[in-house]
């Protein structure tokens, strides 16, 4: 009896152990299956993210057009024979930073074009001797631009530089004052760039210019044609040296370039270079937002003028942009065809073939580059928008322009700006902003 009980107990003990084993095994299997699922899930996440980080062949083709490695050498500026001359670059650099080239000895080009700030100043409108009407433009890469200023009223970098020097809200100087100052203080360096004789400037008046009103204009009227020509020559040469220096200011490599570079080298995408949202932003930029219809190529600009319906600055007379500039560039004595240009008139193709019907350009401004754009708030020609979020919101709503181009009165929506609303939800708008910040 006792044995029977013992063997039963033994059996029960064994069965219990077996049952326990089964439970344990089942538990393990269950655990195994669950952990396998979790592992797969964890593994599949980066795989999924990785796929989103890859551009399709077509997107990559789109992306390549923006790659800095595809930026062709800047077109040779035939209007400026000293553009690559080291002595010109050197003196041009000094002049760019010299505050003595102003009415109060306090304003230089670098007052507004601050090197640490991508050669701009983060102000809504510039401030030199007084407050101006437009925002300071960045100048890295300006040597590629056929037209200078927001409205393109200048057709070369050297001729552009002459503008602020005599602008009474910027440097406030006069050309005779500048010519005398440079010949007196940098005579040796000047001669090494322009070896011809330095003219006798002892009798030149301190203030004389055909475009600065008041005594400066009066004094100019009294000068002989020869003296005027001599002063203009030195004045133009100052511009040419500054332009030579500006030619060394190149667009910077950005994160988007590094991403494209890695793709072109056949590397897999790396979320440290660009996030999924930033890439989605790029897809929108070249996709349904159609930003690349104007912001094209490695400099993100078509070098053309568009009315994009940016509101006029509050309380200011309407700024009609390119419309007002076309006659100015044609009449400018310092343009490509003028006598201070080093180009043969037949090589002035931009000026020659410029579209002549100004009415198409009412309220149109130059498409700005988007390189380093996130560091350059506020945005647009008079700093109308404080942030990139506001800029993208502008393209989403596409408000009517305050002044429309005649050509656009014919479009089916009857809108007077060139752009149509882009349909983007909040997330997409944020992605577009994220992409702009990679530039
Ligand atoms: C008071 C501030 C101020 C000063 C000083 C100043 N600029 Fe500017 N710069 C501006 C503003 C504002 C614009 C745009 C003006 C416009 O479109 O009417 C501009 C535009 C430019 C552009 C055109 C860039 C482009 O892409 O079209 C260049 C180049 C430039 N400046 C170079 C210079 C040089 C060289 C000097 C010195 C000789 C100078 N600036 C002095 C404010 C200034
Ligand atoms: C029809 C041509 C055109 C299209 C399309 C276009 N832009 Fe622009 N963009 C411009 C012009 C022109 C300006 C300057 C307008 C002004 O100041 O009046 C500008 C200005 C900007 C600026 C401000 C840059 C600065 O330095 O002030 C940003 C940012 C910008 N655009 C981004 C975009 C994005 C994003 C898209 C797509 C949603 C887009 N653009 C579509 C022509 C265009």
């Amino acid at each position: 009896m006792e044995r029977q009980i013992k063997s039963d107990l033994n059996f029960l003990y064994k069965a219990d152990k077996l049952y326990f084993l089964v439970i344990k095994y089942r538990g393990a299997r269950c655990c195994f299956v669950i952990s396998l699922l979790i592992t797969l899930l964890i593994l599949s996440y980066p795989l999924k993210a990785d796929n989103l980080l890859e551009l399709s062949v077509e997107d990559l083709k789109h992306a390549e057009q923006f790659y800095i490695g595809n930026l062709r050498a800047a077109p040779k500026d035939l209007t400026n024979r000293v553009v690559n001359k080291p002595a010109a670059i050197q003196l041009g650099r000094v002049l760019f930073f010299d505050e003595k080239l102003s009415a109060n000895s306090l304003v230089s080009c670098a007052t507004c074009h601050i090197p640490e700030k991508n050669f701009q100043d983060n102000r809504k409108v510039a401030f030199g001797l007084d407050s101006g009407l437009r925002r300071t433009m960045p100048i890295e890469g300006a040597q590629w631009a056929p037209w200078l200023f927001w409205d393109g009223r200048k057709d070369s970098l050297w001729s552009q530089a002459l503008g602020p020097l005599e602008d009474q809200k910027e440097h406030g100087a006069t050309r005779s004052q500048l010519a005398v100052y440079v010949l007196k203080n940098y005579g040796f360096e000047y001669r090494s760039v322009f070896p011809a004789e330095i003219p006798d400037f002892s009798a030149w008046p301190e203030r004389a210019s055909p475009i600065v009103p008041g005594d400066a204009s009066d004094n100019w009227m009294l000068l002989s044609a020869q003296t005027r020509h001599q002063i203009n020559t030195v004045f133009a040469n100052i511009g040419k040296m500054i332009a030579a220096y500006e030619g060394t200011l190149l667009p910077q490599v950005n994160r988007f370039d590094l991403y494209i570079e890695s793709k072109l080298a056949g590397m897999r995408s790396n979320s440290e270079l660009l996030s999924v949202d930033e890439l989605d932003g790029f897809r929108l930029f070249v996709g349904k937002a159609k930003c690349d219809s104007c912001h094209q190529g490695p400099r993100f600009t078509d070098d053309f003028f568009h009315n994009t319906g940016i509101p006029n600055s509050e309380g200011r007379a309407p700024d009609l942009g390119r419309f007002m500039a076309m006659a100015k560039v044609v009449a400018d004595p310092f343009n490509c065809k003028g006598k201070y240009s080093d180009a043969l008139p037949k090589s002035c193709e931009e000026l020659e073939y410029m579209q002549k019907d100004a009415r198409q350009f009412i309220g149109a401004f130059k498409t700005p580059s988007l390189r380093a754009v996130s560091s350059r708030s506020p945005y647009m020609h008079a700093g109308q928008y404080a942030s990139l979020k506001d800029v993208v919101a502008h393209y989403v709503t596409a408000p009517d322009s305050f002044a429309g181009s005649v050509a656009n009165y014919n479009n089916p929506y009857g809108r007077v700006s060139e752009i149509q609303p882009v349909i983007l939800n909040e997330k997409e708008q944020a992605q577009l902003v994220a992409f702009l910040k990679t530039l």
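The pocket of heme C (ligand 2) is lined by residues 289-291, 293-295, 306, 308, 310, 365, 367-368, 370, 373, 376, 379-381, 388, 391-392, 395, 418-419, 422, 432, 436 (CB under 6 Å). Residues 18-23, 43-49 have pLDDT under 50 and may be disordered.
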